Amino acid sequence: MKAAVIVFPGSNCDRDVAVSLERTTGRPPLMHWHADADLPEDLDLIVIPGGFSYGDYLRSGAMAARSAAMAGVRTAAAKGRAVLGICNGFQVLCEAGLLPGALMRNRSLHYICRDVYLRVETTDSIFTGHYAPAQVARIPIAHHDGNYVADLATHCALEDEDRIAFRYCTPAGKVTDDANPNGSLDNIAGILSEERNVLGLMPHPERLADPRLGGTDGQPIFASLMEALS
Amino acid sequence: MTAVEITPAVIAEHGLNAEEYARVLEILGREPNITELGIFSVMWSEHCSYKSSKKWLKTLPTTAPWVIQGPGENAGIVDIGDGLTAVFKMESHNHPSFIEPYQGAATGVGGILRDVFTMGARPVANLNALRFGAPDHPKTRHLIAGVVSGIGGYGNCVGVPTVGGEVNFHPGYNGNILVNAMTVGIAPADRIFYSKASGIGNPVVYVGSKTGRDGIHGATMASAEFNADSEEKRPTVQVGDPFTEKLLIEACLELMDTDVIVAIQDMGAAGLTSSSFEMASKGGLGVELALDTVPMREEGMTPYELMLSESQERMLMVLEPGKEPVAEAIFRKWGLDFAVIGRLTDTGRMVLTWHGDTVADLPIDPLAEAAPEYDRPWEPSPAPAPVDPASVPTVPWTEALVTLMGSPDLASRRWIWEQYDHMVMGDTVQRPGGDAAVVRIHGPAGLTDRGLAMTTDCTPRYGSADPVLGGTQAVVEAWRNLTAVGARPLAITDNMNFGNPEKPRIMGQFVGACQGISAACLALDFPVVSGNVSLYNETEGQAIPPTPTIGGVGVLDDLDRMATVAFKAEGDAILLIGGPAGDAECLGRTLYLREIAGREDGAPPPVDLAEERRVGDTVRGLIQSGRVTTCHDVSDGGLLVAIAEMALAGGIGATLDGVTDTPAALFGEDQGRYIVAVPEADAAAVLSDLGSVARRIGSTGGNALTLGGVSVPLATLCDAHEGWLPRLMGDA
Amino acid sequence: MKARVHVTLKSGVLDPQGKAIAQALQALGFDGVKDARQGKVIELDLEDGDTSAAQARVDEMCRQLLVNSVIETYRVELEG
Lengths: 230, 732, 80
Known about the structure:
By secondary structure, chain A is α/β, with parallel strands linked by helices.
């Protein structure tokens, strides 16, 4: 699997996800600078990392979505390349129109950094194949704007097309309002594109993909990609 | 420019007294102009010159074989092995945070980060020691909300995890909150950068953000006692831009991988003045700056404003000659300003020009050497009378414990640290809430199995009664918290927060704290490598409790040999290590006395430094040998609170059969104690190896704490502990 | 010429910040605040020129960057 991580000014989880990718694939990913529109042709996976691209000024992810590198990502996504957006990366993908909906301020208005529980809603994707159906995964969130919104038609399409990848849930796997950390529509934590080759999620799988850090529930995303794309 | 007349009022406004102004006239041999007066004012302010504290700071122990850089640079540096160093410092941003809590706290974080990456280190962790007024004081909630979101807003965006700290509440901070921010970074031992300029003719380069009128006179403000008018000073508070700081970190570290930097200094308080002065002064050189070439954000700025501005996210560098294009390309790539604004000279003078005209011409060494240094009169605090145990009311332990666990100084800080990204960088091995935070050492060559442990500590309750003991105890508690995770304590940074040093009793608190810190540092081989002094924390004559905050750093050589506070299994034996042979005895100045009896009197618990070291070394040995993975030191609230914290962290209760049910035994704060839990099968061997220093006090299990046939459910303790702060802040 | 772009959330979109503002106002005793919506104002300093051309350009700026049409709507005021 040949992977690249896009580095925007203000990205701050680029190294973190590179560590997880290297741990999975055995080689460091390409770190691709935001100003460069030309992505290598032979990439299997492009990761848009977490952070505060361009300070998240104006709107989270808004300016990164209009960067040169994202034009390249859009082309690659159209060709079916895998694109993974984590946290700020999810915001960027929504702003870029590669995923539907938008991410608004958390309903508590606070930035929230803590472990949450996610129910795996589909294993039918290159990102989630290594999870069991309805598996509960403990993965941290760390965001101020993770409150997913979409109009009714979009919501229905996501549901009908099995494109909701993860929902916030209780440790026992129940999808309840109490288990929703940010007010997201229908507890949505991550969604797939129509072609299922683009995943955006607010939680940070790279932060619990190493036993040293207290858990490995994020690792199946990288393992799934490794298997699907190698 | 119209010249400003230097009247006695203008001089007073600049915080210079008559004697100090006389010295200005003597050095210059003439009257200063307004720009020069402004420079003297900031350089000789308490904040920059340490004029009241210097005499005593010089007495602190600052050396050890592992110390690479002690106080006097941007941050202290210790060797952590494998060719790496830990670079760290703590600094206060008290006054600005009281006036504008969000920006004050945010720029405090920004400033301390710059101190660390200026030296070539990548910042790997932030900590914050906060002190607020009474929880029910009308300003407290607003200040907490602002400070916490300011710290989070800045730290989260720059992508450095905020992994620890502490919070206290006391009416003594109603008018002067304390925001002490600490940053720890990692740098290769062979690539450290200092501020000493060298090379006559070398270019002086300005990088980062443009200069505006932010915080003009901030450094002078931070050295003046507050009065009711201070809230009017709001416009002078500087505004932080964490996005630019993040770019500055990356650009500086990228440039540091080339060989073009001769010297580098961040522009902190007193901005361009102190940074340029410091670099030239350390190098024994002169400097010429063309102020009109400084990147400016606002129109119509004057030399005076440029020299005194505290605009954030700026650095000054001296480069190797001819290397400007290398540096400029890197800063342009990151979208940052870059300007050559001057050069080093051999004149020993600071010469400032404005479109070719000289606007200031000052001798550097005489100004630095003549900086006032005071031996202020001081008096020791009177020894407090001990508490008569018979006068202390006894309430059922269950009731006392629930009250204490939900009291302001003991309640969970989760509401705060969940607003901080404490996991970014992917190396946080121990998150907030334990004795010390632990981050994996992730050097330029990649991941390791080693870790850095860090903590901030101070118990102002103790120092208010006995400043010497307060200083000692703060150092000891930091050492103990590092020990409790299994780390080898290396060194400390001290952030000395006190009232008005012109009052002998306050000066006595400062002197006492220095004496107490020195004694502990020497006994524990735990030197001071950096620090900061914040004086004049007084409002309308009311001084804060003396608060010498200690930031401690230690190293874990094997992250598989580490302890955490959480009980790990049912049926483990609970052992108490250290302290008196029988039950604890000290109730003076304890949280029990304050929260249950409503009293703040008595003598604080004494510290036996030799015993402290012996017990701590024993505990660390147990952890490092792999025999103990559950450990917690006994501090605020005493033994039963420590057990409750371990139970809540692990979700496993305990039954205690080895302690007496008296307030002193359960809630006394006798020092030098640790609780460990070990598998039942190992308990006898551990106890026999430890001898008389340890005894068994109970075992883990169930979902309640039980003692003398009475129980309190963990759920009740959890509600009290986790609920207090969200309820205070209106989120529950 | 100055252009002032008022960006607000679309009427159907929940506005947590606006909700908090309304609650705070009610807590302060300001009765009759039925709802509050928070938005932002972006001031642009434009080179002088034709007003209708300026309006068209600002509309384009809103579409391309300043406004997220999934959740936001906007209004432009031109002065001078």
